[in-house]
Sequence to fold (341 residues):
Amino acid sequence: MHLQLPRSFNSQCCRALPPLFGCKWFISGRTGESSSISIPTSGLERLARQSRTPYCRNVVQICCRRFIHISHIDWETVKPSKAKWNVRRVVVLSLMFLMPVASFGLGVWQIKRLKWKTDLIAEYENRLILPPLVLPPQVNPEAAANLQYRRVLTKGKFRHDQEVLVGPRVYEGESGYISITPFEREGGSTILVNRGWIRKDMANQRKRLSKALPTDEVFVEGLIKLPAKRNYFTPDNEPGRGLFYFVDVPAFAEMTSAQPVIIEELATKYIEPDVFVSWEVLANAGIPIGRLPKIDLKNNHAQYIATWFGVCIATSIMFVVMARTPKSTTAQKMKHLKYYS
Fold:
C-alpha cells in the first residue's frame, strides 16, 4: 500500500527528510506543483517507531505546512480600478491645494484686522487724555455709542433703592457683584451708572458704611462704554427672583425708568489725595471699586497672523510632497509582494 502526498514542498524542506521517504522525489519537486509521490508502508512503520524523537517531530511539522504561491492569486479581483484611483487622487490633491490657499487668505485678513484694531486702540487712547465732557440733560444712546472711552462728568443723586447687582464676578480672587445704580441728574433725566465691584458679603446694603451709599448730590466721573456682550454660556436674567447674570442696559433702563445709557465710574472717588488706599479697605467698607481709566481691548491678531501663515507653509509642503509622489502601479505592487513573500 502506498500513501499519496502532494508534491508542494520546496527543496530545503525536502533535505530535512530521511532517506526512507525518498528524498530524491522531494528534491526534484518544485514549489507550486500538484503532482504526488509514493511512500512505502514500511516507511510509515519506521516513522511511527521514531515518532518520539526530535528529528521525527520536525518531519511531521514540515509535512503539515501549507505553501501558497503568489502566482495562484487572482490580482484582478483585489486591485483597485484605474478610474477610481485617478478620481481619488484628484480629490485629495484638490483638498490639499485648497488648505494653503484658505490659510493664506485668512492670514491676509488678519493683517487687515490688526491694522483696524491698532487704529481703534489709538483713537480710544486719544479720547482718554481729553478733559471730561459734561453730559447734556438728554443723552442720545446712538451718540453715546460713538463716544466710547470718552471721560464724562455729571452731577446728581444715586437711587440706591433701585440698585441692581449683577454677578457673580471675581475680583482679585474673591467673588462679588457689579453694582448698577440709577443716577438722577439735574434736569430730571436718569441714567445708569456702573459703580464697580463689591464683595459678596456686602450685597446687603445694611452692612455697608454710609460713605458707600451717599445720599447727597455728588459728581460722578466715568467712561462711556458699551457693556460686554453676553456669551452662550451665560444664563438668562431672572428679574422676578432678583438674579442678574449679565448687564442688559435696555431691560435695566425699563425697570428703573432711566435712559438706556450707562457709564462706568472711575476708581478716583472716595480716595483722598496723596493717600494710598488698598482695595481691601474699600471692599471691607462696602465701597464699590470702579474701573481704571485704561483701554481693555484685546489685540491678538499678530498671533493669528503667525498661526495662519504657519499653517499655509506646512500645508504647502504637504501638497508638494503628495503631488510629486508617483502613484503605485500594478508592476510595483507585484514586485513588492514577490520580494516579501
About this structure: The chain has ten helices and nine strands.
